[in-house]
Amino acid sequence: MMKQILVLHGPNLNLLGTREPEMYGRLTLAEINEKLAALGEQLGAEIRPLQANSEGALIDALHAARAWADGVIFNPGGYTHTSVALRDAVAAIGLPVIEVHLSNVHARESFRRHSYIAPVCVGSITGFGWRSYAVALRLLAGTDDE
Hints:
alpha/beta; single chain; globular
């Protein structure tokens, strides 16, 4: 059976490709989603990408995923460091969630080194650009040994 994976992109990720490309790369969000869809097809996983700039929309997407998803790849963006509400939503849904970041948040400003989300996730992958998502997809699809 094909696994269903929510790929949830947080605030400002809609600007990828033009927003600080030296930090976040030159791929657009649509290009990342296309790469993940192709990889998912190879791995027997269907991805459903969603991007939202508002905290409430991200929480609603996490809640809705309970009804259909086998796991979540979540880049909370700046909410990583500020949102107890998103942390609580991740904890509440009962799904494996992997936190991802394009940049290495631990090599940046000190406030970025704390994540409210990571402690309620199965793991975190940071610093590998769009490939952070790809590694998470392999893990959730159960093909991490390839």
